[in-house]
Amino acid sequence: MTRVSMTVDGVSYDDDVEPRTLLVHHLRERLGKVGTVVGCDTSNCGACTVMLAGKSVKSCSVLAVQADGADVTTVEGLAGRDGELHPVQQAFHESHALQCGYCTPGMIMAAVDLLSENPDPSDGEVREGLEGNLCRCTGYQNIVRAVRDAAASMRGTVPTAQEPAAEASAASTASTASTASSPGEPASQGVTT
Amino acid sequence: MIPAAFDYTRPSGVDEAVGALRDGGEDAKVLAGGQSLIPMLRMRLASPTTVVDLGDVTEMRGVRDDGDALVIGAMTTHDEILHDPLVHEHAPLIAQATETVADRQVRHLGTFGGSLAHADPAGDLPSVASALDATFEVAGPSGRRSVPASEFFVDYLTTVLEPDDLLVSVRVPKLTGWGTHYEKFNRVAQAWALVGVAAAVRRSNGSVAEARVALTNMGPTPVRAYGVEDALTGTAATEDSLAAAAQRAADGAEPSSDPSASAEYRMHLATVLTRRALQAAGGA
Question: Oxidoreductase as a keyword (chain B) (predicted)?
């Protein structure tokens, strides 16, 4: 067993884990972060995408021990504490960018990552940027639309153009200090499957 | 699937890592970004007894300017390569090929050195390193040594690295005044190259003064297309002469057949992609 400390969606956790434990299994089975799903288990589909130290990764291809000391954000950590959806979540909702919804947590996290680097992507850039995520309902058309809508809405409020990152880290600080968040607390939002 | 159990160690320096590999024996494995190793662990295609995680070996990260060459730390991620101004200025071929590697998530963790040490025939960076005449800096129990790209790749997924060797960095000569291009053909849903071509061309007064061409996935290791290089050297850099030289791209290559492409198709692709790569790198 190896001692691992990480902050997930603003809450700090210390656990003893087997080195072979995949980050996605640690998130789901130990921390109760079941918003992050396992899709293909072969690194192809991207359904398990989370942010590790601010960058998107496939959590089925990371060992939990590699995330020691890191800040992890799952789809459960995107919404504001008052339940207000992240602009990408809101856009997926409004554009009906999901059919079965299984790929959605990963699609949303990958989109948040893409928009943090490219705030105004073209259709082609969205498709290229989400190449690591598969939707087997083939609902890509609405996903691309939702990402572009989210980009527009995030750009629309110029003073908070950096909102996603800033919001995530603010939420992170707030909940770490707060005793209200308990480990394994279920997601309060219904965007996950 | 859940990987088989292994001992895990996370050294903080190169010597400590080499020691950990030596102590771990033949079944110890290096974990760089993990984007090839962890899927193999998960599918139980690999079951090392010890995993040596290089995540804390900060001296192996980053790109530095060393006069006539860049020195790229083996643990530099693909994403860091893509955002590195030195790479864009002095080795744009690396940036161009890296952009085609896998997807954003994989590029965030996968490393430059890891891709080279993994030596997948369908990986893009081995042929790029070959075309750039890169030198591999290796640390082992008996000290450090330099290995030229022409000797580094030995066979399918096999390099000169011994089980207790570590690829520390890669020295890439700056190709000032050269044109370079990476041309790749792959299935849309998978970023693995069916065939890729890394080309570097130095022109002088409308002629090709020097050329280097290396092929991805045309054999178990990257293949230097010496026939093309010989045909190009000293000829006029015209569309016709570049195309004529490209016809020799597959000479002597023995690519494999798989469900995505037959060997014959790969031979054909090599000539077409080489022509495109040469025209982009050295055309008027």
Answer: yes
Average pLDDT of B118-122?
Answer: 96
Contact A61 B39 (CB under 8 A): yes
Rounded mean pLDDT, A91-118: 97
On whether residue A33 sits in a domain, the answer given is yes
Distance of residue A129 Cα from the nearest chain B Cα, in angstroms: 7
Q: Which candidate in B104, B106, B109, B184 is best for mutational testing of the A interface (most A CBs within 10 A)?
A: B104
Residues B166-213 have pLDDT tens digits of: 999 999 999 999 999 999 999 877 788 999 999 999 999 999 999 999
Q: Tell me what the pLDDT averaged over chain B comes to.
A: 96
Confidence of residue B236 (pLDDT cuts 50, 70, 90): very high
Residue A181, in any domain of the structure: no
DSSP-assigned letters across all residues of B119-162: T-TT-SHHHHHHHTT-EEEEEETTEEEEEEHHHHEEETTEES--
A66–B contact, CB cutoff 8 A: yes
Give the Cβ contact number of residue B2 at 10 Å. Answer: 13
**Which helix H or strand E contains A148, and what residues bound it?**
helix A140-156
CATH match for B178-282 among 3.20.20.150, 3.30.1950.10, 3.40.50.10240, 3.30.390.50: 3.30.390.50
Where residue A192 falls among pLDDT bands split at 50, 70, 90?
A: very low
Q: Which residues of A touch B6 (CB under 8 A)?
A: 19-20
Q: Which residues contact residue B167 at a Cβ distance below 8 angstroms, ignoring those fewer than 6 apart?
A: B74, B113, B116, B117, B136, B137, B138, B159, B161
Give the gap in angstroms from C-alpha B191 to the nearest C-alpha of chain A. 9
